[in-house]
Structures are given as structure tokens and as C-alpha cells.
Write a structure and sequence with these properties.
Helix content is about 40%, strand content about 25%. It is an alpha/beta fold. It binds adenosine-5'-triphosphate.
Length: about 240
């Protein structure tokens, strides 16, 4: 479904990504783990067109999306939940969700999708008229995921969904990520510093260090790998 081929990304003279090759198949949950500053967020932002690569190619269902306008990339079926949520604080929960569907005109299906997100996150239904900025951190993360779902993505990019949240909320959110994957066959590309959690929910994983992919394997094998355990699981 998604293929990054020899991707390099620069911020001015700083090279953030080097020779990145990642392949994601339909229906998978793939995680990208690595330390602070390894290049994980840049990989997602390069995929969804916000920070275009300086060379290499990105194929989505066989079609190159490099240098495509991010709006078009969303319309093709890739949505991102950015690190730090970035919901619209002065809009209500419902208006935030409407914004997620702004490229769509299938009104009946949009209503059904909103009912679906209210079903998986009932707290958002209760708070639908409340301003987004007044929600708790966990509720804002639920809203950010739901807003991305309102674009009806085939591929959902999640950047650090656990960041700053209490463990009980994190578990709830990860259960829902798995549910979204299983119920809708939504493919998920998950960037996480909480490697233990990410590898437990993912099918396969990639390890990133200093802008390069240094390892890739099934999530089970990475969880059992001594180097990964020492570097990322604190074991
Ligand atoms: P974190 O988990 O802390 O978000 P990360 O693995 O997602 O880290 P990136 O945010 O992708 O890492 O950063 C990769 C490298 O690119 C880092 O060296 C970072 O300082 C640099 N970088 C990121 N954004 C910019 C920017 N807008 N301008 C210049 N350099 C940047």
C-alpha cells in the first residue's frame, strides 16, 4: 500500500532522513520506533507531503505521491494525527470533526462516520458542543484521532499518540487503535517512543537511529531482540 524508496529529507542543510526504505501492506499495523530526534516525525511528515523529500520516491497504491499537494494526499486516503494533537481549540468537538471531513461531500456517509467515532469514543458524543481546547489531554487525543478518521483514511499515520497521557488512557487509546484497524481494515503507521506498547499492538516494526532504518522485523522478534530490549525497552 505504501512504499518509501531511498527517501532522503533535509531541513535546509540538515539531513533528517537517509536512504529510508519502508513498505507497508494493506491491513497492517506498522510501528516506527527510535529515540528523540531519530527522524520518526519527519518520516510521517514526508509521507503526507508536509515536508517533501529531497530525493527518493513514495508510492501509495502504486502511484507516486511525492511533491503532491497534502490536500490531494488526504483525498487519496492518507490522514495524519500529528504529534501534540493540534486540534482546533476554539471550535467545538463536533466542528473539529466536521473539519476532518472538509474534503468530502458524501453527507450520509459523513453522518455515519461521525456516529462511528461517537460509538468508539462515547465521551466525545457527550462533549460534542464543548470547545476542543477545554478537553483533557486524553480526550484531545481521542478527538485528534477521530478528526483524522472523518477523512475516511485507508492509511492512518499516528505520531506519538501516548505522549503526555496517563497509562490508563494510553491503554484505552491503543485498544481503540487496534479496533479501528480490525473493524475498518484501516492500515496504521504508528510512530512511538513507547516501544513496548507499540510493538505489542503492531504486526511489524522498523527501528530508526540518526535518520536511518537500522533494523526491521516482526513486532514479536523485535520485542525479543536483545539490542532492542536494551536500547528501547529499558530491560
Ligand atoms: P521526537 O520523538 O523527539 O519527535 P523524532 O524521531 O520524531 O523525534 P524528528 O522530529 O523527525 O525526530 O527530527 C529529526 C531531526 O530533524 C532532528 O535532528 C531534528 O532536530 C531535525 N528537525 C526536525 N524538525 C526540524 C525543523 N523544522 N527544522 C530543522 N530541523 C528539524
Amino acid at each position: 500500500m505504501l512504499k518509501l524508496i531511498d527517501v532522503q529529507t533535509h531541513y535546509g542543510k540538515i539531513q533528517a532522513l537517509r536512504d529510508i526504505n519502508i513498505e507497508i501492506h494493506q491491513g497492517e499495523i506498522i510501528t516506527l520506533i527510535g529515540a528523540n530526534g531519530a527522524g520518526k516525525s519527519t518520516t510521517l511528515m514526508t509521507t503526507c507531503g508536509i515536508v517533501p523529500p529531497s530525493s527518493g520516491d513514495i508510492l501509495f497504491n502504486g502511484k507516486s505521491i511525492v511533491h503532491m499537494n497534502p490536500n490531494r494526499i488526504v483525498a487519496m486516503g492518507i490522514s495524519q494525527v500529528p504529534e501534540g494533537r493540534h486540534i482546533f481549540p476554539y471550535l467545538s468537538v463536533k466542528e473539529n470533526l466536521d473539519m476532518g471531513a472538509f474534503l468530502r461531500d458524501d453527507t450520509d456517509q459523513i453522518r455515519k462516520d461521525m456516529n462511528y467515532v461517537f460509538e468508539i469514543f462515547p465521551i466525545l458524543a457527550e462533549r460534542q458542543h464543548q470547545q476542543g481546547g477545554t478537553l483533557s489531554g486524553g480526550e484531545q487525543q481521542m478527538l485528534a484521532i477521530s478528526r483524522a478518521l472523518m477523512a475516511k483514511p485507508k492509511l492512518l499515520l499516528l505520531d506519538e499518540p501516548s505522549l503526555g497521557l496517563a497509562p490508563i488512557i494510553v491503554r484505552q487509546i491503543f485498544d481503540i487503535i487496534k479496533k479501528i484497524n480490525q473493524e475498518n481494515n484501516t492500515t496504521i503507521f504508528l510512530v512511538e517512543q513507547n516501544a513496548n506498547l507499540a510493538l505489542k499492538v503492531a504486526d511489524r516494526g522498523y527501528v530508526m537511529e540518526n535518520g536511518r532504518i537500522t533494523m526491521t522485523d516482526s513486532a514479536g522478534n523485535l520485542l525479543a531482540n536483545d539490542d532492542v530490549r536494551k536500547a528501547y525497552l529499558g530491560i
